[in-house]
Amino acid sequence: MLSISEFSEMCRLSPQTLRFYHSEGLLLPAEVNEQTGYRSYTFDQVEQAMLITVLRGTGMSVKLVRRSLDEPDTASALLQQHSTEVQRQRQAQDEAISDAREFFNAWPEARLRHVPEMTVVSKLVPGPSTGGDQYDWAEADAAVTVTVQDVVKTVESCGAVVSGTPWRAWASETPEQKRQIITMEGPHWLVKIPVTADEEAVAALSGDVEVQTFEARDELSIFIPGKNSMAKYGTALSRLVMHPLDAAYIDISRMRQMLHDDGVETTAAICRLDETDMAG
Q1: Which residues contact 272 (CB under 8 A, 6 or more apart)?
Q2: What is the dihedral of CA 129, 130, 136, 141, to 10 degrees?
Q3: Which residues pair with 212 in a beta bridge?
């Protein structure tokens, strides 16, 4: 029999770690003295300790390690499952690092621009986009992406051409849409895609898409790299609201989010104050 200190030195696992593995059912001592509580191990438990060390070294959770030991036939599948999750986390971390570099290399700033009149195809994004008490941006983004792809296929099948960057806007064009936003029932978004189309193509664009004229306007915009989030949305909104304008203000009700591959550009229409408004 090996004392816990001897076993610890042989396996390069601290006594504290061995006690933790004991409490988690990973590595049970061969004997525990009822009077002193001293733990003893056998030499053939070194191999089990080695397997645990190898698996824990991958970052695998105690729960998965225990399953791998209890069900050896599933060990390879569990390791693959863990490997896939690690790769997903690494990708998410790489994207976060890239976003952070973008922020500190060029901090997002609001800018003014003029947007010309254009023809757009509009479609309601189906389904609510909420996650319990908090807004689920990932779910909303996924639904918007699917809708954009669907509209692009419809446009191209009718002989029209996508002529600009798609965007999404709050679904508030009808009384019913406004009610659904207020009550959080959803749908919450409309997808808008600029198109170039002749009369025949426009006539063919029917069904669940609507052809609209987007009126020319001045607007304030800010681009924030990476995936959308409530924090980024709030940051964009605060930057737009706080940006100084000369005899003008931004219309929050006419905001839109341009869908770029590397981030989201939030814009809001600028309303000019005429002399009468200023006098009042």
Answers
A1: 218, 247, 248
A2: 0
A3: 120
Q: Which residues of 229-262 are buried (b: 16+ CB within 10 A; e: fewer)?
A: eeebbeebbebbeebebeeeebeeebbbbbbeee
Q: Is domain 2-77 annotated with CATH 2.30.29.30?
A: no
Q: How far apart are CA 90 and CA 168, in angstroms?
A: 29
**Cα angle 232, 238, 243; round to 5:** 130
> To which H or E segment does residue 123 belong?
strand 118-124
Residue-wise pLDDT tens digits, 143-179: 999 999 999 999 999 899 999 999 999 888 888 877 7
| pTM of this structure | 0.67
Per-residue pLDDT of 129-139, as tens digits, reads: 544 456 677 88
Domain ranges in the chain are 2-77, 111-279
How many Cβ atoms sit within 10 Å of the Cβ of residue 214?
17
Name residues whose C-beta falls within 8 Å of residue 210's C-beta, 6 or more positions apart in sequence. Answer: 121, 122, 123
Rounded distance between C-alpha atoms, residue 7 and residue 2, angstroms: 6
d(CA 228, CA 220): 19
At 163 the three-state DSSP class reads: coil
**CATH topology classification for 111-279:** Multidrug-efflux Transporter 1 Regulator Bmrr; Chain A (3.20.80)
Give yes or no for a contact between 69 and 30, defined as CB atoms under 8 angstroms apart.
Answer: no
Helix (H) or strand (E) holding 151: helix 137-157
- Domain pair 2-77 / 111-279, same fold: no
